[in-house]
Amino acid sequence: MITDTTLNQEDVSTKTEKASSSVSRRMFVGATALASAGFLGASAWGQDRSEQKAGRTPPSSSDPGPENQPLLKENPDSNMPPFTDHGNPGPVWFSFDLAPKRMQGGGWTHQVTQRELPSSKDIAGVNMRLTSGSFRELHWHTADEWAIMLTGKARVSVMQPDGKMFIDDLGPGDLWYFPAGFPHSIQGLADDGCEFLLVFDEGAFSEDDTFLLSEFLAHTSPEIVQKNTNWTREAWDKLPATELYIFEAPLPDTLEADRHFLGANLETKNKYTFRMGSMPATTSTPGGEVRIVDSSNFPVSLNIAAAMVTLKPGAIREMHWHPNVSEWQYWIKGTGRMTVVTTGAKARTMDFNANDVGFVPTMAGHSIENTGTEDVVFLEMFKTGRYQDVSLNQWIARMPDKMAEAHLKLAASTIRMAPQSKELVIKASPTS
Ligand code: MN
Ligand code: MN
Q1: Cα(153)–Cα(246) distance, rounded to whole angstroms?
Q2: Distance from the CA of 179 to the center of ligand 1, in angstroms?
Q3: Residue 180 Cα to ligand 1 middle (Å)
Q4: Which one of 67, 380, 405, 423 is the catalytic residue?
Q5: pLDDT over 90, % of the chain
Q6: Residue 316 within a domain
Q7: What is the pLDDT of residues 165-210, one digit of tens each?
Q8: What average pLDDT score do residues 318-326 get?
Q9: Which is it for the CA torsion 208, 213, 216, 221, positive or negative?
Q10: How many Å lie between the centroid of ligand 2 and the Cα of residue 374?
Q11: Which of 160, 294, 355, 406 is least surrounded by Cβ atoms within 10 Å, i.e. has the fewest?
């Protein structure tokens, strides 16, 4: 398994070997060359961080051995971290583009769970594609399911234990939420089916371990099925003997026709879908926008909350943390960088691209910067019914002058130059 922790450990050992071979070469060259190469000062280099603060490169930073250039180019901060990084707070990155696809007639799926990103114990993610007409087989599971449409169109249905069924059609930016145990379906519609992201409130969830309509029937004796359904033994023999999972099927009738079929059994009170893409921004600043969807505006979403963040080039998602839960991210668009700071002075910076997954441990301080030239769009996902965050700027703004000065070792006049409220997104400063 490739995790960013293992990559990092390899990086560290490789660097150490290269550093020692570089040292022996230099010793062979002689003392004058050593002095000109800056080696004599190396033992003290950066111990008080003065060299790093001045932006100087360590004299030992050359890397003459093998390198995976595409990986280095994509994640420079992982390989050569900012000088403020320290220790190892655990893996904070994975990518769906490293996760093997399960290919089926009708589509594919792959997942980033606790198996791929071991620190993510609260949330697992699945990315799925269904071609036009194809079904994700009728099923249910132990976790709650939150989903966002990435492309195309889909029809979803979910039945409540009271026998009422909700059915709706969805397009890009639309959400659905299915509580654990409620049986549901997803079908790709014309012209090109759909692709979507599923988020489950169990880190160890696996898309390969769901309860399936086909398996319930195939593994109950024909006599019981016959008594239960009045179907003949010949009919039982025709039922699927193994799972269908993802499979091709004819396109459905119109949504109106399917709703008409349900009649009084159509669920209309509880809404299991939500138009996140077209909702007004919860917060909008010159640096970007944040849309928050949780049980306060999407009432069925009792155990999963979401924030969709848009960052303009150079803007940051402000320094903050979440007081109630860890954060699982899905990057939809753009290029950025996140720094996570945990207890014991542990800090890690990673770069992110579209289709990457990020993780922030519960309570850990973090910030995200758009390092590219186009907008960044990413999702913050939480295993909680209510979104909550704590803003560093807002906290500092609430500190009386003497309290703030004593801790920050700055004059109050300087301290108050910071934003005095929670902005969520802060635009690029004129100097950056
Ligand atoms: Mn499901
Ligand atoms: Mn966050």
Answers
A1: 16
A2: 9
A3: 9
A4: 380
A5: 84
A6: no
A7: 999 999 999 999 999 999 999 999 999 999 999 999 999 999 999 9
A8: 97
A9: negative
A10: 21
A11: 406
Q: Which ligand is nearest to the CA of 339?
A: 2
| Domain count for the chain | 1
Q: Does 154 fall in a domain?
A: yes
- 46-50, 252-256, 327-331, 342-346: least confidently modelled range: 46-50
Residue 218, domain CATH: 2.60.120.10
Is 289 a known active-site residue? Answer: no
Does residue 23 form part of some domain?
Answer: no
61 C-alpha to ligand 1 centroid (Å):
48
Nearest ligand, CA 126:
1
What integer pLDDT is reported at residue 429 of this predicted model?
Answer: 84
Q: Render 96-143 in DSSP notation, one character per residue.
A: GGGSPPEEETTEEEEEE-TTTSTT--S-EEEEEEE-TT-EEEEEE-SS
Residue 58 tokens, joined: 């360590």
| Cα–Cα dist 385/206, whole Å | 22
Ligand nearest to the CA of 324: 2
The mean per-residue pLDDT over the stretch 387-414 comes to 98
Closest CA to 109 of 194, 180, 181: 194
Confidence of residue 358 (pLDDT cuts 50, 70, 90): very high
Closest CA to 313 of 337, 291, 332: 337
CA 267 to chain centre: 31
Q: How far is CA 171 from the centre of its chain?
A: 21
Query: Residue 48: inside a domain, yes or no?
Result: no
pLDDT at residue 266 in the model: 98
Q: Contacts by 414-420 with C-beta closer than 8 Å and gap 24+? A: 418/393, 419/318, 419/393, 420/393, 420/394
> How does DSSP classify residue 252?
P
Q: How far is the CA of 389 from the centre of ligand 2 (A)?
A: 7
The lowest-confidence range among 16-30, 277-291, 357-371 is: 16-30
